[in-house]
Specification:
The protein is an alpha/beta fold and about 290 residues long. About 25% of the residues lie in helices and about 25% in strands. The chain has a single domain (about 1-290), classed as Ribonuclease Z/Hydroxyacylglutathione hydrolase-like (Metallo-beta-lactamase, Chain A).
Length: about 290
C-alpha cells in the first residue's frame, strides 16, 4: 500500500515561503497499490496537483474519492480536479448525506454562477457517480476494504480505515479527541473513557493520519471546535497500538518551523511519558510512504 500527501493544511490554504517545506494546500491524500484503482481521501486544494499527476501518468482511470465531510477546506479543490474534464475517467464520489446535503449538491452549490464561471453539468465529461455510504458498513474496491466511523467534529463527519493485504491505514482528520475539561494535561484514563469507539476503530493500524491542529497549550481556547491537540493525539495513538502516527491538518498559522516544533514536542511526550512505541512523523505535501 502506498499513501501520498497532496494537502496537509487545515481550514484555509496558506501558500508562501513560510510553508514551502511541509505544504500549504488543504487536505487530500491518495492510496494506491499495483491495481488500476486509486483511492482518494478529501478534495481540498491538494487535489489539484493530484489531478495533474493522474493525467500525466496515464495509469489510473478508475478513481474513488471518499469525503470526510463538506467543510470548505475539504471540497474546495473539486472544480479544479483535471480528470473531471476528461471522458476516459470513471470517478465515484463516496459521502454521507447531512441534513439533505449530498455531495452532488455541495459541488453544485460551490459552482453556482455567483461563485464559479461554469456549471458542473456543462464541463464535467468524466463518468461521475455519487455513492451515499451512510447505511453501508464496508466498501470493497478491488483488494481494498474501506470502513467508516463518525468522528467528533460536525454532524456527519467520517473517518476511514483502509485494509489491504494485511496492512491498514486510518485517515482521521477533523476529529477532536475528547479529554476531561478539568485536566490540565490529558490522561490515558480519560482518553480511553471518552474515545473508546475511535480507539477500537484505529486499533493496531500500521499508519494513523490524524488531525493535530493545536498545541496543548492553546487547546483550552478551542475546545468544541472539532480538532485535536498534539498531546491527546499522541496518547490516543499509543492506546490504539498504532505503529506510525502522521501529524496532519496543521493550523494555517503554523509556519514550517512551528510544524517542526509540533513534532519535537509530540515525540517528547511519547518518549518521556509513554516509552515511545509509536513512531511519530510529519505529513508533508508531495511525500509518498509505502508500507
Amino acid at each position: 500500500m502506498k499513501v501520498k500527501f497532496w494537502g496537509v493544511r487545515g481550514s484555509i490554504p496558506v501558500p508562501g515561503k513560510s510553508t514551502v517545506k511541509y505544504g500549504g494546500n488543504t487536505p487530500c491524500i491518495s492510496v494506491a497499490n499495483n491495481s488500476s484503482e486509486l483511492i482518494i481521501f478529501d478534495a481540498g486544494t491538494g487535489i489539484f496537483n493530484l489531478g495533474n499527476e493522474i493525467i500525466n501518468q496515464k495509469k489510473y482511470y478508475n478513481l474513488h474519492i471518499f469525503l470526510t465531510h463538506f467543510h470548505w477546506d475539504h471540497i474546495q479543490g473539486f472544480p479544479f480536479f483535471a480528470p473531471f474534464f476528461q471522458p476516459e475517467f470513471n470517478i465515484k464520489i463516496y459521502y454521507n448525506t447531512v441534513n439533505g446535503l449530498t455531495a452532488a449538491k455541495a459541488i453544485d452549490e460551490q459552482m453556482k454562477s455567483g461563485f464559479f464561471p461554469v456549471k458542473r453539468e456543462e464541463v464535467f465529461k468524466a463518468n461521475v457517480e455519487f455513492v451515499d455510504i451512510s447505511s453501508v458498513d464496508e466498501v470493497k474496491i478491488d483488494v481494498f476494504k474501506i470502513r467508516k466511523i463518525h468522528t467528533h467534529h460536525s454532524e456527519g463527519t467520517y473517518s476511514y480505515r483502509v485494509n489491504e493485504s494485511g496492512k491498514s491505514l486510518v485517515y482521521m482528520t477533523d476529529n477532536e479527541i475528547f479529554c476531561k475539561r478539568e485536566e490540565f494535561h490529558p490522561s490515558l484514563e480519560s482518553i480511553c473513557e471518552l474515545n473508546a469507539d475511535l480507539i477500537n476503530f484505529t486499533d493496531n493500524a500500521d499508519i494513523l493520519i490524524h488531525d493535530t491542529q493545536y498545541f496543548e497549550e492553546h487547546f483550552s481556547e478551542k475546545v468544541g471546535w472539532g480538532h485535536s491537540n498534539n498531546s491527546a493525539v499522541v496518547y490516543f495513538a499509543h492506546k490504539a497500538n498504532v505503529k506510525k502516527l502522521f501529524l496532519f491538518h496543521y493550523d494555517p498559522g503554523f509556519n514550517d518551523e512551528r510544524v517542526e516544533e509540533l513534532l519535537t514536542e509530540s515525540v517528547g511526550i511519547a518518549e518521556n511519558e509513554l516509552n515511545g512505541r509509536t513512531e511519530i512523523l510529519l505529513s508533508q505535501e508531495g511525500v509518498e510512504t509505502e508500507f
